Known about the structure:
By secondary structure, the protein is an alpha+beta fold. The protein has a single domain (about 1-135), classed as Beta Barrel (Lipocalin). The protein has one helix at about 1-25, and strands at about 35-45, 50, 60-65, 70-75, 80-85, 90, 95-100, 105-110, 115-125, 125-135.
Amino acid sequence: xxxxxxxxxxxxxxxxxxxxxxxxxxxxxxxxxxxxxxxxxxxxxxxxxxxxxxxxxxxxxxxxxxxxxxxxxxxxxxxxxxxxxxxxxxxxxxxxxxxxxxxxxxxxxxxxxxxxxxxxxxxxxxxxxxxxxxxxxx
Length: 138
């Protein structure tokens, strides 16, 4: 009886581990990602910050991360397409970190390898944006 309980616990544990590894495999820094922007905060000089959706600030609703081409792409509601080269990338045990420069601003994106949630910040002399959302392998 004791061996049966131990075997059941071992099978359950292996099943959970396999499931966790399978979901993390999509966030390995090799599989392309489609990310949905859910919240945006924009700040200008002084204490002025506004919160809204991507369309409020004419930012992409979806961001596509292409690891092979080393670019991040997005299309705004206005139809303009944005492509930003990834200048630096690092995959750690917990997250994927991407950095680049676009339109006189530096940007940095952190993607949680376990959940796919991301935070992206873009900072320049005139305005800073903070975006958050979720990614899925594409």
